Amino acid sequence: MDIEILENSKNIFLDTVDAKDYIQIERISVIYKSLLESIKKPLKMVLLYGRPGTGKSMFLTKLYHDLAPNQPIFIYKTPIFEENEFFKTIANDIFLKSSVTELNFTQLINIIDDYTSEFIPLVLLDEAQLYSDSLMEKIRLLSDTRKLKFVITLHKTKEEDLIAKEHFKTRIWESIELDSANISELKIYIQKKLMKENCFDIANMFNEKSIKAIYKFTNGNYRDTNKLLYTLFDIYIAYSKNQKIYKIKTDYISTKLVEMAAIYSGIIK
Amino acid sequence: MINIDELEKKWLYYKIKSLLPFILVIFFLLIFIIFLSYFFTKTPENTITTLNTIPLTKEKEKEKIVRTKEVNEIPKNIEKLIISPSLHFIEKIKYSSPKNRNSTQNSIKIRKPLNTQNKIMTPKKVSIKDIEPIKEKKSILINRQNTKNDINEVIKRFNTNNNPALSLFIAKKYYELGEYRDSYNYALITNGLNNNIEGSWIIFAKSLIKLNKKEKSIKVLRRYIKYSKSNKATLLLEKIISGKFN
Known about the structure:
The complex is a heterodimer.
Chain A: H1 3-12, H2 26-40, E1 45-50, H3 56-67, E2 73-76, H4 83-93, H5 105-114, E3 122-125, H6 133-144, E4 149-155, H7 158-168, E5 172-178, H8 183-196, H9 200-205, H10 208-218, H11 222-241, H12 255-265
Chain B: H1 4-79, H2 88-95, H3 149-161, H4 164-176, H5 180-193, H6 198-210, H7 214-228, H8 231-242
Helix pairs in contact in B: 3-4, 4-5, 4-6, 5-6, 6-7, 6-8, 7-8
């Protein structure tokens, strides 16, 4: 087994959020289309929620990538914890109002009131569960101006559900939940990811048994799957470099290798 | 760089740990199966002995039941139907002089009836009234043939133990010898000792025929058949009625 191919396969599963790495799965495509429709509506806010590793960030990135050529859209992948910093960033990026000094909320509102445009800017906020309650309240007020539209992602936890209800109860017109993949979706995800990079032989190595083993340890979580497969190919590389490739199956991904990857990556403790 | 050997060891440990519950379950299942097989291979020996004993005991019980039935059934019937005949002509014959008899005939020694004979009770419902127990008062010495010597021995034994089987044997022997009065008498004695003995009824009926008491014989047989349902008695009755038995 060629080490170069193994290295390429390994890098495919690097846990990065890149729109070009987006893998189209039927169920997710339907959800994405409904999100696109929701944005077209005169909404103030759309809530995208789900467990960590279900593809919220990828979703947001994909949305940004698809809409950016046609309308003003701004994505903030990492939260801006400082309120003044947040206002300054908004004013600068969206309304092209740079400020040397700090900018408070009232000043930002004044800037927004003066702004006129054909298109309502869309602001994508990832990891919104990290924002403070105060800032979340101000984001709500900004959406009330109807001069800004927000799509926020939130981790699905009991507490965060509560926050979402308190802050955005009357303002959320659409809430979309993202779920982990099922076994068949996981198989499609893995094979499509490999085939996208022309790793067809590697993609064929994944049979039902190996997919089942991967699902057993990841439960369809994309992040965990990426982590596991990255480690899996790393193990293959280690066997190859140590001249011990004869010890393992090379025509298909064995359950043993998947289990070893799970042990090494810490999924099995 | 991943240490493959160490990772393989970790994997092996993980595999054993994950399979341990299954191994334990299979292990205990095997133990259970071995125990069961041992238990079941052991029990057949006991069951055979018990099985062996059961039928035997059952058979014995059956025999007992049959015997008790036989004893219970017939006595109930025959309690009411006991031979207690008394024939006047027999009395006459017994006490008649020897010159009335044929000299070629064998002389018959009439002996005193046993005390048990007096215990014969007439049935309440069924009784042959004209039949009276034979009372022998006088003993007549007779010359016996050698063939009768064996009867004497049996008679001696019977006198000591009162075994109805012996009296029946004597009755049959006398009948064979043509001594119908004696056979009649000993049949009566036998019946008095044990009224369950079918043979005593048969010999008694046959003796009556030989003594030209056909009607009496038929009557006795019918009474006996009514209560005992005896096939032998039925056959004899048919023969008597049809004239095949004289």
